[in-house]
């Protein structure tokens, strides 16, 4: 026969076991909840920061069917740049145009094309390589002719390991770090076999193979990258402009982010011959 003391101990043990089981269930539920929160945060960080850290020069990864969006309102006057040699950008805002498909080929691949990037920190001149990157140069010339690049902020500067200034995202602003905007169309990579990225190289940013849009980067110091970014031009003037921007550093003191210099493409033009 079970004594009253033994019965009391049995009931106490059962109560303890139930408490332990309930505690274990609560802990497991908390772990699942925290894991879900952690996963959601990770997605947000990757989505918002992919253009900065998840691959070198990510750009617009989404296609859109919007064509010829109406121009946006003029931006308010900008404050002076904290970097010597840079001036307030010209008044105006990106026109925000979009197209449903890559522009028709209108390029003479045997001709010489030059691009002038008139920035708020000085002019950079580029010899475009129409022979080796015809689709890329054709798109760049088309967008420049549409004033697409005018008033677009150069949103990213890297100063550690990779030495580039990235431009071409019309959505970039003081409140938006940039990296996801584009013209609405994409086109394939070109000129990747044996591609290298010495100082003076101009190449396309992308979000993976075949996702070129409007974003590009200017290499101001020899940089080691995989041959994944279409080189389409060489800087022939204004490399000192880029090195001055780089000397101004990155906001927050990191090696990758928005430049301290308020670099804006006041006007981009291309010429043939």
UniProtKB/TrEMBL annotation:
The chain crosses the membrane at residues 35-57. GO terms for molecular function: isomerase activity. Its EC number is 5.2.1.8. Residues 68-82 have a biased composition (Low complexity). Keywords: Isomerase, Membrane, Rotamase, Transmembrane, Transmembrane helix. It comes from the Bacteria. SUPFAM superfamilies: Cyclophilin-like. Pfam families: Pro_isomerase. Residues 1-20 have a biased composition (Basic and acidic residues). Residues 122-270 form the PPIase cyclophilin-type domain. It catalyses: [protein]-peptidylproline (omega=180) = [protein]-peptidylproline (omega=0). InterPro entries: Cyclophilin-like_dom_sf (IPR029000), Cyclophilin-type_PPIase_dom (IPR002130), Cyclophilin_A-like (IPR044666). Residues 1-32, 68-101 are annotated as: Disordered. The keyword rRNA-binding does not apply. The keyword Transmembrane helix applies. PPIases accelerate the folding of proteins. It catalyzes the cis-trans isomerization of proline imidic peptide bonds in oligopeptides. Belongs to the cyclophilin-type PPIase family. This is Peptidyl-prolyl cis-trans isomerase. It comes from Kitasatospora nipponensis.
């Amino acid at each position: 026969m079970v004594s009253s003391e033994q019965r009391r101990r049995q009931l106490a043990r059962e109560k303890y076991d139930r408490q332990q089981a309930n505690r274990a269930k609560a802990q497991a539920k908390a772990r699942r909840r925290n894991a879900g929160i952690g996963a959601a945060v990770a997605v947000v960080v990757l989505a918002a920061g992919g253009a900065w850290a998840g691959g070198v020069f990510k750009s617009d990864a989404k296609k859109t069917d919007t064509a010829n969006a109406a121009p946006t309102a003029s931006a308010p006057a900008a404050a002076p740049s904290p970097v010597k040699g840079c001036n307030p950008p010209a008044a105006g805002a990106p026109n925000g145009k979009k197209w449903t498909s890559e522009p028709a080929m209108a390029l003479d691949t045997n001709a010489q094309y030059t691009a002038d990037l008139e920035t708020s920190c000085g002019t950079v001149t580029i010899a475009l390589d129409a022979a080796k990157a015809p689709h890329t140069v054709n798109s760049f010339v088309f967008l420049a002719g549409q004033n697409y690049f005018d008033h677009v902020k150069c949103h990213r500067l890297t100063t550690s390991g990779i030495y580039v200034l990235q431009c071409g995202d019309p959505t970039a602003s003081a409140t938006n770090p940039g990296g996801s905007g584009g013209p609405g169309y994409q086109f394939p990579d070109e000129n990747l076999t044996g591609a290298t990225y010495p100082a003076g190289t101009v190449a396309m940013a992308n979000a993976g193979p075949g996702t070129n849009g409007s974003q590009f980067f200017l290499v101001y110091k020899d940089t080691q990258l995989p041959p994944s970014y279409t080189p389409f031009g060489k800087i022939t003037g204004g490399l000192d402009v880029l090195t001055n921007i780089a000397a101004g550093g990155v906001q927050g003191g990191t090696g990758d982010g928005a430049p301290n210099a308020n670099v804006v493409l006041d006007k981009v033009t291309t010429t043939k011959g």
